[in-house]
Amino acid sequence: MNGPNLQNVATFLKVADLGGFASAGRELGVTQSTVSRRVADLENHLGTKLLERTTRRLILTEAGARYCEAVRALVAGLAEADADLNDDRGHAQGALRITAPLGYGRTRVLPALARFAESYPQVHLQVDFFDRYADLLADGYDFAVRLAEPQVSGLDAKPVGWITPFLCATPKFLKSNSIRQPEDLQLELCLVQRTYTPRTVWSITHDGRLKHLQIKPRMILSNIYAIYDMALAGIGAAILPDFLVMDDLRSGRLTLVSSEVALAPVPIFLVWPSYKSHLPRIKALREFLFQALQN
Question: How far, in Å, CA of 8 to CA of 11, rounded?
């Protein structure tokens, strides 16, 4: 049995996405009758109705919904394969799915990606910023900026710099809440970030000794910007990255909890699937971000 005509499949997906033959035809640059014929040919090939046609709109049948879900990834994969072949010829083009931590991503990575998009208009970026862990291979990402070196096989990584964290609070908060020794931080004075679970174990160096503090949070928040805002509001002490707080520390809006407390720097890595290392769009993004993000 011959397989379905891929043009017909792609046309059906466009109709399903746009909800009509006319709109799909305009998007594809063909007539409405051509769209209708392609969908009818696909239905004849499959031996089932994919769309219910009413006077006002088109509705996917149960079979149509299942088929749409099944073939969408396949069609996207074919488009990606075409882009990869063009990319192999030395031109950086095609789609790149990128993930990065929310705070560092918005503050440092996004401005760099804006410049990258201007330099490489044929590379189409899809960018996700969040603090949860994303599995590049399983979730279909092409590139990541990570705050830790990957420990799984199948990924390549390149160190690009460091983030320096600071334990800080407003002068008013520290005046009202005496923190004389690191153990004082455990008593509902701190703002804690939650990803999958709250980060309630803080590792700090005090007087040359590493200590692991079990924090009882004053407030738990879901992202670094919320932590930053609450710290500026004088709600608690927080561990915040240099790229957010350097201006505040210089101006005195925030101050270090203790000059004797040190926190380990956090490494930044560029990460990508090993099997995509040869693609020009991966190489272009890697080198561009390496230059842009170096400390």
Answer: 5
Does pLDDT of 137 surpass 90? no
d(CA 198, CA 193): 6
Distance CA 122, CA 90 (A): 12
- Structural tokens at position 183: 């153990």
Residue-wise burial string across 3-29, b where 16 or more C-beta atoms lie within 10 A, e elsewhere: eeeeebbbbbbbbbebeebeebbeebe
Which residue has tokens 């600071």? Answer: 166
β pairing state of 94-100 and 209-214:
unpaired
Does residue 294 contact residue 160 with C-beta atoms inside 8 Å?
Answer: yes
Give dist(CA 260, CA 108) in Å, integer: 29
Residues 19-68: tens digit of each pLDDT: 888 878 887 778 888 888 998 998 899 889 988 876 667 788 888 888 88
Better pLDDT: 69 or 121 = 121
Using CB atoms within 10 A of its CB, is residue 225 exposed (0-12), middle (13-18) or buried (19+)? middle
CB atoms inside a 10 Å sphere around CB 106: 16
Which residues lie below 8 Å from residue 89, measured CB to CB, with a gap of 6+? none
Instruction: Work out the average pLDDT over 241-247.
Output: 96
Bigger pLDDT: 121 or 88? 121
**Residues forming beta bridges with residue 201, ordered by sequence position:** 214
Structural tokens at position 84: 């990869």
Nearest in space to 5 (alpha carbons), one of 85, 79, 75? 75
